[in-house]
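quick one if you have a minute, typing this from the bus. theres a chain ive been looking at and ive put its sequence and its fold in token form underneath. please have a look and point out which stretches look like helix strand or loop to you. anything you notice is useful, everything is just below.

***
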Amino acid sequence: MTGFSVPKKKFRSSVDRHRVRRLMVESWRLNKHALYADIPKNLQLHLFVLFTDNKLPDYETVNNAMLSCIEKLRTASSTVNIAPKTE
């Protein structure tokens, strides 16, 4: 499950907020497979992405930031040790 947010405080125009959100969603849609391949099947991933810059970005900027975020999550997920449930 993934959520995206662009604060009204940063972008007063709803058109700008929705544009940034659409760019984030599109970048996530095209790149999420790289992260999902590293998540074990018995675990769920809940992710919320918050845009914090003041400038209206282009797709390349958003995509590079999303790839960087996904790479950080991949390295973090490789260090997590999950013990199987014993009941």
Remarks:
- The chain has a mean pLDDT of 89.
- The chain has one domain: 2-78.
- Strands lie at 2-5, 47-50.
- Residues 2-78 form one domain.
